Amino acid sequence: DVQLVESGGESVQAGGSLRLSCVASGATQDIGCMGWFRQAPGKEREEVAQTSSAGTTTYADSVKGRFTLSKDDAKNSLYLQMNNLKPDDTAVYYCAADPISCSASWHSPVWLGQGTQVTVS
């Protein structure tokens, strides 16, 4: 099993920046894909970004050019740098991982953190 713990969410003004962090523990050698999902009030959870074990990273169109995903394998950590934040970015952000390879149809990750709230006003 894999445990994921996020941190870094807070309230910011539009145009501001935040950096979310996620630390993975447990059977991290089983992870094939990691990324971030978010869920806004009244909306379905959506993928924000994903990165494969080989380092291939993709982003949702809504965050391209503003968000940057990075990871530190030595620290089993995943990061999401969010710049030029907009009110529509308000959501609970979840760190996610899966034993399978990344794909464009990654909707239900096997492992999900508890979430961290990001509020943009």
Could you characterize the architecture of this molecule?
The chain is an all-beta fold. The chain is built from no helices and eleven strands. The strands form two sheets. Strands 2, 4, 5, 6, 9, 10 and 11 form a seven-stranded mixed beta sheet that branches. Strands 1-3-8-7 form a four-stranded antiparallel beta sheet, with no helix packed on it. Strand 5 and strand 6 form a beta hairpin. The chain is globular, with a radius of gyration of 13 Å. The protein starts with a strand and ends with a strand. The mean pLDDT is 96.
Number of helices in the DSSP assignment: 0
- What is the β-strand count? 11
Question: Nearest-angstrom radius of gyration?
Answer: 13 Å
Largest sheet: 7 strands, mixed
State the distance separating the first and last CA atoms. Answer: 37 Å
* Mean pLDDT across every amino acid position: 96
Helix content: under 10%
SSE order, as H and E? EEEEEEEEEEE
Low-confidence stretches at least 5 residues in length (pLDDT < 50)?
none
Tell me which oligomeric state these chains represent: single chain
| Overall SS class | mainly beta
